[in-house]
Amino acid sequence: MAIRKTELYASLWASCDELRGGMDASQYKDYVLALLFIKYVSDKYAGKPYADIAVPEGASFADMVKLKGKIDIGDQINKKIVAPLWKANHLNEPPDFDDPNRLGSGKEKSDRLTNLVSIFEDSRLDFTTHRAGDDDLLGDAYEYLMRHFATESGKSKGQFYTPAEVSRIMAKVLGIGQAKTTADTTVYDPTCGSGSLLLRVADEAGSKVSIYGQEKDATTSNLARMNMILHDWAHADIRQGNTLSDPKLKDGDTLKTFDYVVANPPFSDKRWSTGFDPEHDEHGRFAGFGVPPAKQGDYAYLLHIVRSLKPNGVGCCILPHGVLFRGHAEAEIRTNLLKRGYIKGIIGLPPNLFYGTGIPACIVVVDKRDAKARLAEGGGVYMIDASKGFMKDGPKNRLRSRDIHRIVDAFAKLETIDKYARMVPLDEIERNEHNLNIPRYIDASEPEDLQDIDAHLNGGIPERDIDALERYWAVCPGLRDALFTPRRPGYVDLAVDPGEIRQTIREHAEFKAFTERMAQHFEKWRTREAKNLKAIKVGDNPKAIIHRLSEGLLEHYWGQPLVDAYGVYQILMDYWADVMQDDCYTIAGDGWVAEPRRVLEKAKSGKQKGRLKDVGWACDLVPKEFIVARYFATEQAAIDDLGAKLEQAEAELAEFEEEHGGDEGLLADLDGGFSVKAVNERLKELKDAPRKDSEKLHLQAWKAHDTGAKAIKKDIKAAEATLDAAALAKYGELGEDDVRALVVDDKWMGAMDSALRHEIRLRTLALVERVSKLGDRYDAALPELLEQSNTLEQKVSEHLDCMGYEWAKHAGV
Q: Which of 208, 472, 638, 782 is the residue whose CA sits 20 to 30 A from 808?
């Protein structure tokens, strides 16, 4: 059976648990990623002649397994596995598997490494048929590890990884996916880190391109090389060294130029000029633009990108917001870049996205290709303020699929979107002294919810607040008249009691019709896509499946009233990440087969402990609940009825105990509270007590209640066991068409239907809350409040007079 992506991630992260505690995440990542690399290249290339990757004889993962349990396993891994494998593939900085400071010594180290190797020995972790270019299973696993390592490493150690969401945006806005690329198309990252950004661009190209990168840190450049191999880009040219002081990629003595350049350089690098004289840069990167400040290296990297682009090249660079508005030397460079028309666009990102810093950053898009057109009349710089589109993800913020799609769509169309994006003419930028700070050009602030003084003084809800809900009235024009009545020019009153607002909206004929239209709209999509999804077969690419499905859903809901198409798109993408992704990988690997598996009880730590107890069964692709709902609805209804009876019986028992067991109750003296043992002992004591008949009857009544409840519990347990056995047996009777119906119709489409209905309910709730808020705000005008105050004051004064208290004297009147 194919391994599910979540199981792969869990297995890899379990390997981290073997190392966590003895070292920092920035250190143990080297061991885990090295093992993943060794396992992958062994599965793919060991014993194959003329392969892209050399696996020397005796240096495969199978040879590593033979070392398990040996007291000198660390030293043997270094000598027999790592050294020859790294040398054969021109890798450097191998991790030391014999380091006692990190791995312990003696038996501790042997056990730790043995357990680590055992995790990767799982038969399901077989990469012989997995290619990142085909299904991204391994590539996603590597990215999953890198993201978690960056998170755990802290601010100073996250520079080796660019969040995948930002990488996707950069790859899209480059436009490489729409270009005709060949093996001669070049992609370059001068600060490539682990190479994730380069790989994202290469993947977006959709065909083979030539990858180049340089990374200053030796260990991180090694990660990049391994990453390239893991993604089947073994021929990528990754160099190690300082890009600014010692660029390695040249054509003779001049810098090599590329079609596409991307980078996420260290923010505000204070040592960027170490090792060379920027005033006399032999590569002319600063000529005609200006030399960046000695303590701010942002423009040094950007100008390196500009110099490294071909005349028709396009580049993207992640930089801190300061580059948009800082003065002096940076203002001069910014002005010169704008006057040449090199800056095509600026995308402002949310704060706290990156692992190396919490400050907000932006993507600067450089395009030499259309520079002249950009300088012509009507040209400009396209700006996007995407700072508010994100979700919280632990200590960091994270772009959602909807946020990424919205940015990419806006940039592709270069359209004006209120409070979000616009093309800013160069003459407007010039009037602002070439300051590119996004808030100068895009006001993304939310309008203030104004208080209306006249309404507070004279009553009524301002019509301008009602007009602001126009998107609801456009769908349900009659609903407005059902909720409000005129009071005076410019003001209205609620036409219904505040407690009836929700019911009025939900029961209104126009709103009901809208809800029904949305249900029918979903049904059209469901009918079309269910047929396509049931056609998934072994070998299909899950990434291609979700791309087609999600883009179709977005298009289907585009322009629908009261529904955010990007919000609907996000519902599907969330469900994909939680459930559907694993299902599709299972189907693409094994077909439409629903096989139950045993569920074994483990220790609380999650590790195996002694003999495991069989505590039931489960099926991930078709959970029991869907089998029951489709084939055993009657049996489940009977169990539900028993459950309702049990709930009633337990409520009656609790009520009886409360009534007769309190301080004044007949059974208040029951020793130890209500239990069968305590009640029986008390009945025994009262056997020869003729005057205690009433207490006896109450004790016997409690026993009857308790016995009845237990009998129902027993019936439920028996019925559930029978249903469980019947459901388990049903799996063996299922054909492929049955599984397709259960997965697509009941599970996937059922979940989407439920989520979209909830989305419509949220729209209803938003209108209810706003109308209720306005009604509460202007519920009583000032004269009414004064009248109420005077009436209450008069009542208080009368009561005080009755008590002989002189109010006027003590109030100072």
A: 782
Smallest CA-to-CA distance from 348 within 274, 399, 401 is with 399
SS3 598: strand
Report the distance separating Cα 509 and Cα 476, nearest Å.
9
- Tell which residue, 168, 212, 206, 162, has the closest CA to residue 187: 212
* CA dist., res. 405 & res. 411, Å (int): 10
Would you say how long the chain is, in residues?
Answer: 813
DSSP strand E in 245-390: where?
250-251, 254-255, 258-263, 309-320, 343-348, 361-367, 380-385
Task: Please give the model's pTM, rounded to 2 decimal places.
Answer: 0.86
pLDDT of 155 reads 42
Is 160 within 8 Å of 146 (Cβ atoms)?
Answer: yes
d(CA 704, CA 653): 9
Instruction: State the chain's mean pLDDT as an integer.
Output: 87
CA nearest to 116, candidates 21, 17, 44, 30: 17
The contacts of residue 132 (CB under 8 Å, 6+ apart) are 138, 139, 142, 230, 231, 232
Instruction: Please check whether residue 712 is in contact with residue 649, taking contact to mean a CB–CB distance below 8 angstroms.
Output: yes
Q: Enter the tokens of residue 188.
A: 């370059």
SS (H, E, C) 478-543: HHHHHHEEEEECCEEEECCCHHHHHHHHHHCHHHHHHHHHHHHHHHHHHHHHHHHHCCCCCCCCHH
Contacts of 418 (CB under 8 A, 6+ apart): none
pLDDT value of position 640 = 96
What are 369-417's pLDDT values in tens digits?
Answer: 888 888 876 679 999 999 999 999 877 899 999 999 999 999 999 999 9
Residue 418 and residue 442 in contact, taking contact as beta carbons nearer than 8 Å: no
429 has a pLDDT exceeding 80 = yes
| Residue 527 burial class via C-beta count within 10 angstroms: exposed 0-12, middle 13-18, buried 19 and up | exposed
